[in-house]
Amino acid sequence: MPQLPCATAWRSTSTSSTELLEVGRITKAHGIRGEVVVVLTTDRTERLAVGAVLQTVTRGPLTVDASRPHQQSWIVSFAGVHTRNDAEALHGTVLLAAPIEDEGTVWVHELIGARVATVGGDDLGTVRAVEDNPAADLLVLESGVLIPMTFVVSTDAGVVTVDLPEGLLDL
Questions:
Q1: CATH number of the domain encompassing residue 92
Q2: N or C: which end of the chain has fewer CB within 10 A?
């Protein structure tokens, strides 16, 4: 089964000619020194490494000055954000970044729009989204059909091939 680094529903934002992926969201201010709480929507924690630059739709780029894990999220300091008021102004900001090239890894954004076919060659439709699910991430097809990622056997040239157990689509 392909490795799937981002276990969440996928969203993207196009800015000029670059496709940016949502990698996190600022949920609230933390303390009085301009720190914020960030919930990552990716498992690539290097997105919050010191010096990393994250894009936003409305506020421009934000450069990470410091970050540390905190419960199920991260406490992050961004350059130029020094007070609680500055941090509160970032509440709800979506953090975006360019895709990471990683040989042999299937990224969620690469699955969106891909055709899904069975190992026998039956066309099942197009992937509309990938949803996080405790048992296994789910491919959401345009028809509304949900296919657990555990049944994906390959992803080549815009086609996701699945090996489904008998009766899965009959439900």
A1: 2.40.30.60
A2: C
Q: What's at 115, amino acid-wise?
A: R
Quickly tell me which residue has 């439709």 as its tokens. 125
Confidence of residue 4 (pLDDT cuts 50, 70, 90): very low
Q: Token pair for residue 109?
A: 């954004």
Structural domain span for residue 150 = 112-170
Residue 2 lies in a domain: no
Measured in degrees and rounded to the nearest 5, phi and psi for residue 161 equal -100, 130
Residue that has been written with the tokens 């933390």 in this structure: 30
In this predicted structure, the answer to whether residue 171 has a pLDDT above a threshold of 70 is: no
Spatial separation of the C-alpha atoms in residues 7 and 14, rounded to whole Å:
21
Amino acid identity for residue 129 in this structure: A
Contacts of residue 19, Cβ cutoff 8 Å, sequence gap at least 6: 12, 98, 99, 109
